[in-house]
Please model this.
Amino acid sequence: MNDKKRRIDPAGAAVVGFLGIIILMISFVVLGDDFPLELWVVLFVIVCAIMMGGFIGTLVQNKNDKDQLIQSMDEFQREYDVYTEKLGVVKNEATVTLIELDQYNFKVKIPQYMWISEGVLRIFPRAEFYKRSRTTSEHKADVLTLQIKSIPIDSILYFEEIGELHKYVTVSGGGYSVEGAYAGHFLGDDIGAVIGSRVPIESKVVSEDDRAIELIYKDRSGNVQNLEFDHDSYKILKKMIPSKELRLIVGLSQSQGQAQAQVQVQPNSDVAAQPQTTRDKLKELNDMKAEGLITEEEYSEQKKKLLDSFASN
Model:
């Protein structure tokens, strides 16, 4: 004998009761007088009771699950607060959104605290994502799995905007409506029908934004690593580490290159023979990619090599 108590699924009971009612109704219609009325009434009352019991049980279970979910979220928040205080997480208003791959290789966006301490850029996940997406009525996220990402500012090579913002106009309408023609004919005969059938042309600007921010840095072993952030993180990074913005780095490199060229140039020197700056090389790479001479992967590889070479000088 199995002493383990089995939990009855109230939703399943409600479905069984509903199907029982349908079967009884069909049986009553098909069999007619051959189906004893007293038996039919008894069975009908039983399946109605099962359905109603299942429905009420579902409502009760949903309420209990909701209460348990709130309890799990509150418990996670308490553990999170204790854990972050122990780690020394700075909970400021500087929130960035880190894009990571989950176990199924799907991109997930996780809001993060970001602050600078002792020359190190530090990032730590906020609680909201784990309360919303990783906590259920029966399970809550383990705060011990959350760790601070620490990146020395000196090891950061640059951050830049990647991707593009596409905007295009969609046009709808301009055809004819049968309902409009009918109403127009009713109010203004044939001329009204023609006018009423016309559907006004509407245009709408649609935006497709796949921009993101990429942070490139070197780890302790000297290997180049990258972090990808949502585009909304650009302002925070620009405020915290402005000297690491790629456009600024390339601009300074160009200015230094021009100044050096002005010092070294001789009266009869050929300007075209002067060495290319980092910005010139990046422009050439962009032009080659735009013309389809190199692939996106080749472009990224060459750009990274170029900037790594610049950072090592």
Observations:
- The two ends are 78 Å apart (CA to CA).
- The longest helix spans residues 37-87.
